Amino acid sequence: MKKRAVGLMIAGVFAGEAAAQSSTVIFGKLDQAVGKPVGTANRQVIDTAGSRIAFRAAEDLGGGMQAIFAIEHHFNPDTGSAVNPAVFWNGFSFVGLRVSGFGALTLGRQYTSGFLTVQNQIDPFAGETVAALRTILMGGAYGTTDAPQNTTGVWGGAPTGIGPSKGRVADAVKWANIFGQVTVSADIAETPAGGVDRPYSVAAAYAGGPLWVGAAFENASGKHDRVLNLGARYNFGPAALSAGFTDGRINTATNNGLRAWLLGVVVPVGVGDIKAGYATSKVAGVARNERVGLGYHHNLSKRTKLFADVAHEGKGLTDNRTGYDLGVQHLY
For the domain that residue 210 is a member of, what is the CATH number? Predict the structure, then answer.
């Protein structure tokens, strides 16, 4: 399965890549489509994947040690405006050291271990386009502070649900390493304003041949917030199947339980991929969301693709339940 998510773009920061004495890389993606997001009646030019420009660097310090940093800015390519004017480096902004055999230790604004290692690996749409299912699996985290989606109601779908998962946390310390076919990661951050706990998450994943499995636990800043994520993916050749399960608690007066499921499939067809999936989540006594997505992504090259998707949300919305997009995406 081809993953065009942020995890692939910054994997080199943590993975112990070979580097020269000093190297700086500019990378990111541009995404534009004509479509109608789920939950709206407006047909518009939209960004379905979170366009961004980012920089990362590694300096060889000798003795198997490297200094590393990475910064990422999210923007709206149709207008040129920042996604979040209050936070210019709205993606990540961190610095740290990577030591051969030990892994990477970084400090700053960062994607959580749970999101990057597990949550972001299960959705066949990789959290992109109107058909994205990741938000449902995370309990509908869309719209919460530092969620992996933007604030315009486009990237990832409609703002339904009240899940506690965070895509990113500020003031975080994170450690990550790869031991053969196993990736492990853990992070902890300062308690944000209005929070109760120090948010932290731990995650591990195994990738060997056609099989990928992962597990993550996240404790957000609320008194009762917690999320357990389990995921698996298997490539049979003619198709790659994925499945995810979420169990957690929401920081409310009644401490509501959260349950979510996701099933997805990617079928290669020539140079393209047919993608389909279903996800459902329920917060006890509060809300239930479910979405089905279907799309075709045509790869013009390793970095450029055309895509067309449709999504329908059966629960969580009273109208405008169907959305669609037709667009182009380029990675650089």
Answer: 2.40.160.10
